[in-house]
């Protein structure tokens, strides 16, 4: 996840939700203490940059990716994440002193909570925390069935998507989690998709991450003030994954089972359906990737778009989850060649790449010559075990006869608790 976008989202939410209970306010943000120096950060935390806006998020992704790679995370790292939970069940982006009780000023949010649920559910042994967090998410569900970043904020595709992944990770069927109006998360998600009256294949992005032109099957982050929808690459990737009822941890796709992407079905009898919607979103994402194999975004103050590594990696996860292995292959190779500098000392970035490689059936321990797993481990406390998973006979996932590196992730799949994204997606927010 792009930290700049997450930070901008939190600031935007403050403006929209100053009367929404625990949501952060502009005044509170202005009065917040200065970022801690790296030496003052918790020793259990992954990463050394200021965690104010992404501490729980990056810790959750790091632990989720370690678990997917067959690594047993450091106990104190897991304890730190679990300890960030408020009594209500929600998680804030970061609490410097978790011994202090949360109150109305504690800015709990759906994205941090949903990410923590996915990680703790996958790790196992934290059913109480997972259930409490899932209960909190249900308690702040909007009447349209979706979620905004902060409680009480208007629903958006990204937040709704990351919560869908969390619900699935907690063992719930997202379609069964309904608001008082009887609306499910999928009802809300379908409301963000550009339908059959939109054009096909047009996807020029503007500086705020939204698409300047419509595109059939794409998703908007939110409707504008007039209710119009504009295609957004971030939102579309997140929805493509969430529409399948999955989160960022996706089991490796078997070779030989590839399915071609198809544009949003606009047949005369076609009715709104989340699986159909996810397929249309996947086709839109595949079209975006066809030219350069990666997605782009404009950074604040920039005039030219730059590669969006995080969203490209999430696109790989979404496409492979939908069985579109071939559509994701070129993007995975592009990441192998180009993402090293971006992911260096970046726990969330490294974790997303690990999860992308894991989903696509690639080896994150040899990702374009880089050992992503070791690099991720180095951003936090020493893991309890950094070795690849072992098979039932206790043998390392490696041929003892010829020394051929094993496809370690196949062995590890059976050890990973199934989970359903959130971003995702994504879980990212529009500036």
TrEMBL record:
Domain (Prenyltransferase alpha-alpha toroid): residue spans on this chain: 60-171
Cited InterPro entries: Prenyltrans, Terpenoid_cyclase/PrenylTrfase
A Pfam family this chain is assigned to: Prenyltrans
Keywords per UniProt: Membrane, Repeat, Signal, Transmembrane, Transmembrane helix
TM helices/strands, residue ranges: 406-425
Keyword Nucleus: no
Region described as Disordered: spans on this chain: 370-400
Superkingdom, natural source: Bacteria
The keyword Cytoplasm is assigned to this record: no
Signal peptide annotation: 1-29
Annotated protein name in UniProt: Prenyltransferase/squalene oxidase repeat-containing protein
Species annotation: Streptomyces pathocidini
């Amino acid at each position: 996840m792009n930290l700049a976008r997450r930070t901008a989202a939190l600031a935007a939410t403050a403006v929209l939700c100053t009367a929404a209970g625990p949501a952060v306010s502009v005044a509170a943000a202005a009065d917040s203490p200065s970022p801690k120096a790296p030496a003052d950060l918790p020793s259990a935390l992954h990463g050394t940059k200021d965690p104010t806006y992404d501490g729980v998020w990056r810790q959750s992704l790091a632990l989720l990716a370690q678990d997917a790679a067959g690594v047993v995370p450091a106990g104190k790292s897991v304890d730190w994440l679990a300890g960030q939970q408020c009594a209500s069940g929600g998680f804030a982006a970061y609490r410097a002193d978790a011994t202090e009780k949360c109150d109305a000023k504690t800015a709990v949010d759906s994205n941090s909570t949903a990410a923590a649920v996915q990680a703790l559910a996958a790790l196992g042994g934290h059913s109480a925390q997972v259930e409490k967090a899932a209960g909190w998410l249900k308690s702040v569900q909007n009447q349209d069935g979706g979620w905004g970043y902060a409680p009480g904020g208007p629903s958006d595709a990204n937040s709704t998507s990351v919560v869908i992944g969390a619900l699935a990770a907690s063992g719930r069927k997202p379609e069964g989690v309904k608001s008082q109006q009887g609306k499910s998360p999928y009802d809300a998600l379908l409301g963000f998709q550009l339908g059959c009256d939109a054009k096909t294949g047009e996807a020029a992005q503007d500086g705020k991450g939204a698409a300047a032109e419509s595109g059939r099957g794409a998703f908007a982050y939110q409707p504008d003030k007039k209710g119009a929808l504009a295609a957004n690459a971030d939102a579309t990737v997140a929805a493509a994954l969430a529409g399948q009822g999955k989160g960022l941890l996706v089991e490796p796709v078997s070779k030989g089972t590839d399915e071609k992407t198809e544009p949003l079905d606009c047949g005369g009898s076609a009715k709104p359906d989340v699986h159909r919607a996810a397929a249309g979103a996947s086709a839109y994402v595949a079209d975006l990737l066809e030219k350069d194999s990666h997605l782009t975004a404009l950074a604040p103050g920039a005039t030219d778009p730059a590669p969006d590594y995080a969203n490209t990696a999430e696109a790989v996860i979404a496409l492979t989850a939908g069985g579109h292995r071939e559509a994701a292959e070129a993007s995975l190779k592009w990441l192998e060649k180009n993402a090293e500098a971006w992911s260096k000392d970046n726990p969330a970035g490294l974790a997303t790449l690990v999860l992308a490689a894991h989903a696509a059936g690639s080896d994150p321990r040899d990702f374009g010559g880089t050992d992503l797993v070791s690099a991720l481990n180095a951003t936090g406390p020493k893991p309890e075990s950094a070795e690849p998973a072992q098979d039932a006979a206790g043998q390392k996932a490696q041929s003892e006869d010829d020394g051929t590196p094993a496809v370690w992730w196949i062995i590890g799949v059976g050890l990973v608790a199934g989970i359903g994204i959130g971003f995702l997606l994504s879980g990212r927010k529009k500036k």
